[in-house]
From TrEMBL:
Record field: compositional bias (Low complexity): 308-325
Region (Disordered): 284-328
Domain called AAA+ ATPase: residue spans: 23-190
Keywords: ATP-binding, Nucleotide-binding
GO molecular function: ATP binding
Designated name of the protein: ATP-binding protein
Pfam families for the chain: DUF87
Length: 477
């Protein structure tokens, strides 16, 4: 098999990269925005797609279109938890799948953590899966910064460790790092220094030109050559490219959007007065057409719910002749009505119990159908929406909830019910309502408590969501 690919030409002569040599020696690509760096990476990936496994860390979504023409699998990092990304990386190595890890749906620090997690799992794969693979990291200055910047120190250590392992120790594991950066000065030196092959594009800052010239073995006065490069031209050097510096014009690509440079457009010919009118007239009408945010719903007083529900029970209710009322059935009906009331979660247990008794009397049940302790548990089950489940699932949840304390029973059952319904997790509003709060912070502390108690397992997804598992349900099978 021919291991050489053509990436472009120098004065009409083809310039090749030896992929076998590249796997052993790694590559650094540098170029300012607009220099053609992403185009170069795409050309390299397209030409070598049939020769070697490819793993692309893509923070901007530039390379997902590779899947349109090749066998690349796009992995949207925002849809997976940390543990799932680690498991995915292990499978990528085991099955030699070419993948693009798409990070554009995440915030910057989440992108960094997701990439570090994925790279770390690739590096730690079992020895029997150490197949050769190109690992392309675009915008590498994000993942291997030379200074701490604004990211958390823990995140910086995690990502630097992953990138250092890739570039310093990845060769023995079959991983050939290809890192691309806009700024050499912002890339950690121990990461850049491990590359033996270089493709340097246009750059203007002196500090970047000097570092590029040093890496290429040029005298510093020759650094001006790098500043004068045209878009799409790179100076290449290294055992996989050429033993002497060559200036290569990168060839065409099959995938991706062909973006033309923006040209000049005629300005509108409106008079100054007309343009001012377009900008300032009828601003009030524009504002009026926008829907204002709804005002927050006022929190009712502690007595409001009981008064609203027991209003019709104020007058004495005549005893009706006929069969005795169905006490259990009536109690369940009343509990369901109370659970559906929008103000219910904001009331104290004693207020709710009094409202419950009043509504039972209104429905002909004059003897309390349950005491306060049982009411709290039955009401938590009603708030959790267990009536949506089949009788078997309802009994199953009631069984596993026997040892759960009353104050967290409602949200625990909401989580368990969502699991039975096939959802990853209930939303925060559902949990807050079952917990009797409107505070997101209390919901987070509740989940922490339930996890510490071993009642649930929470996996945060990089996209901002979460997946919650209930061990008792899995044990009950």
């Amino acid at each position: 098999m021919n291991a050489g690919i053509v990436i472009g030409e120098e004065q009409g002569r083809p310039v090749q990269i030896d992929i076998e040599e590249l796997l052993a020696t790694r590559l650094l690509v540098q170029g300012n925005s607009g220099s053609g760096k992403s185009h170069l990476l795409r050309r390299l990936l397209e030409e070598s797609a049939g020769l070697v496994q490819q793993i692309v860390i893509d923070p901007e979504g530039d390379f997902v279109s590779l899947a349109d023409a090749f066998n690349h699998i796009v992995v949207d990092a925002s849809a997976y938890s940390q543990a799932e990304l680690e498991a995915l990386a292990v499978r990528v190595r085991a099955h030699r799948a070419s993948v693009v890890l798409a990070l554009e749906g995440l915030e910057v620090e989440q992108q960094i953590r997701a990439a570090a997690t994925f790279l770390g799992a690739l590096f730690d794969a079992p020895r029997e899966h150490w197949y050769p693979a190109l690992v392309v990291v675009d915008e590498a200055q994000m993942f291997a910064p030379s200074a701490a910047g604004e990211m958390a120190e823990e995140t910086r250590r995690l990502t630097l460790s992953a990138m250092t392992n890739l570039m310093c120790r990845g060769r023995k594991r079959g991983l050939a790092g290809i890192v691309a950066t806009q700024r050499l000065a912002k890339l950690a030196k121990n990461v850049a220094a491990e590359a033996s092959n270089f493709l340097m594009g246009r750059t203007f800052l002196d500090i970047d030109m000097i570092r590029a010239a040093d890496l290429l073995g040029m005298e510093r006065r020759q650094a001006e050559r790098i500043r004068d490069l045209e878009r799409g031209r790179f100076v290449g050097l290294g055992p996989a490219i050429s033993r002497r510096p060559v200036t290569v014009k990168i060839g065409s690509v099959k995938t991706g959007k062909q973006v033309a440079a923006a040209g000049l457009m005629p300005l509108p010919e409106a008079r100054k007065e007309d343009m001012a009118a377009l900008l300032t007239e009828s601003l009030a009408d524009d504002i009026a057409t926008r829907s204002p945010p709804p005002p927050p719903r006022p929190v009712p007083s502690a007595e409001t719910l009981g008064e609203a529900m027991a209003e019709s029970a104020a007058a004495p209710v005549a005893k009706a002749d006929g069969p005795a009322p169905d006490t259990e059935g009536t109690a369940r009906k009343v509990l369901a009505e109370m659970a559906a009331h929008p103000d219910t979660p904001l009331q104290t247990a004693s207020t709710l119990y009094q409202a419950f008794l009043a509504l039972c009397r209104q429905n002909g049940v004059h003897i309390p159908p349950m005491d306060m302790n049982r009411f709290r548990r039955e009401f938590a089950m009603a708030m959790a929406g267990l009536d949506r489940l089949t009788e078997n699932d309802r009994e199953r949840l009631v069984g596993i909830a026997e040892g759960i304390s009353d104050d967290v029973l409602g949200p625990y059952l909401v989580i368990a019910r969502s699991t039975l319904e096939g959802r990853d997790a209930p939303d925060d509003d559902e949990l807050a309502r079952a917990y009797g709060t409107s505070s997101p912070g209390r919901v987070r502390r509740l989940l922490d408590y339930l996890e510490r108690e071993g009642l649930i397992v929470v996996r945060e997804v990089f996209g901002g969501g979460r997946k919650i598992f209930v061990p008792a349900l899995e044990a009950a099978g």
